[in-house]
Automatic annotation (TrEMBL):
<feature type="domain" description="CAAX prenyl protease 1 N-terminal">
    <location>
        <begin position="27"/>
        <end position="210"/>
    </location>
</feature>
<keyword id="KW-0812">Transmembrane</keyword>
<dbReference type="InterPro" id="IPR001915">
    <property type="entry name" value="Peptidase_M48"/>
</dbReference>
<comment type="function">
    <text>Proteolytically removes the C-terminal three residues of farnesylated proteins.</text>
</comment>
<feature type="transmembrane region" description="Helical">
    <location>
        <begin position="155"/>
        <end position="175"/>
    </location>
</feature>
<keyword id="KW-0472">Membrane</keyword>
<dbReference type="GO" id="GO:0071586">
    <property type="term" value="P:CAAX-box protein processing"/>
</dbReference>
<feature type="active site" description="Proton donor">
    <location>
        <position position="330"/>
    </location>
</feature>
<keyword id="KW-0256">Endoplasmic reticulum</keyword>
<feature type="binding site">
    <location>
        <position position="288"/>
    </location>
    <ligand>
        <name>Zn(2+)</name>
    </ligand>
</feature>
<keyword id="KW-1133">Transmembrane helix</keyword>
<keyword id="KW-0645">Protease</keyword>
<feature type="transmembrane region" description="Helical">
    <location>
        <begin position="181"/>
        <end position="203"/>
    </location>
</feature>
<feature type="transmembrane region" description="Helical">
    <location>
        <begin position="6"/>
        <end position="23"/>
    </location>
</feature>
<keyword id="KW-0482">Metalloprotease</keyword>
<dbReference type="InterPro" id="IPR027057">
    <property type="entry name" value="CAXX_Prtase_1"/>
</dbReference>
<dbReference type="Pfam" id="PF16491">
    <property type="entry name" value="Peptidase_M48_N"/>
</dbReference>
Amino acid sequence: MAFPYMEAVVGFMIIVYVFETYLDLRQHAALKLPTLPKPLMGVISQEKFKKSRAYSLDKSHFHFVHEFVTILMDSAILYFGILPWFWKRSGDLLVHVGLNAENEILHTLAFLAGVMFWSQVTDLPFSLYSTFVIESRHGFNKQTIWLFFRDMIKGIVLAIVIGPPIVAAIIVIVQKGGPYLAIYLWAFMLVLSLVMMTLYPILIAPLFNKFTPLPDGELRVKIENLASSLKFPLKKLFVIDGSTRSNHSNAYMYGFFNNKRIVLYDTLIQQCKNDKEVVAVIAHELGHWKLNHTMYSFIAVQVCENTHGVLWVYMYFLWVYMYSIAVKADAFAKKLGYGSALRAGLVKLQEENLSAMNTDPWYSAYHYSHPPLVERLAAIDEPDKKAD
């Protein structure tokens, strides 16, 4: 008897869904707690805690509905053979318009175009509700409906431009790869990752946001002096107009070798109390660079994804690693003299972004790239406590 591959795939999807829903339920229970964690009492205002709790619970309720609908649709699509049926229909469409359905590249592109269209249509109601109901209700959304659909159309156009060459290359590799197929695919995906990491912030991100040089002034001087003291090859320092879409804030860096760039969200500058808090956040990011965390993380993902290791071992390794490097980057900023400012900046960002104050440890370990605020503040304070 043939192995029931389809049933196995659907079964595995449901198992993952049940496991992640269990974690979501644990987190939902934590979010419902009516008081701040003890370490945050007197640090986070009660007003911000109430707003954060309401926002987090709203997102949690929405997440339950979204994930339930998604698993129902995905399971039904697989179980009832919708994908094979759609593969046949996409071939019929090619014949109808006078193209060769036997061409595997054309057939695959037609199939994926239909899948992308289906995904856009089915996810649109959830995206609209998340953006214009939940995010607007809690004061984050700044998008107009026109900007929302303009971004969506840009994304579709980018997929149409970038997708076909990548799909065609993968199909050719599969056709010609022979016994070295896995190696060729890995090499292609590695090169593709490096190319996209290079091109995305330079060519793609500016299609959605405006990047302007950080104006001359005290903040720019402080960031440049910090970068110079660490021998960070800073070439450009940008401010991004994140406030045109959301009040959430962020900062990041990108670039290879001696062509590094730092990007600050305008909301980050607005939300931090003073320049030193902004610089402290940058010091944390520079800590990731100085300690080679970005390179190690990239290598770790490549090794884990391409050694056919056990899934759970791979995930556990990344959890532990990501947690540890976040704490190390905070410690690095503290050693530079930004401990107090980083502490204040993290608290401010937690408040302004209405991030969850109470978190379940299993949920945060599975989903978060950085430890919760309570753990980060404890790690920042720990050396001071030992010194007393």
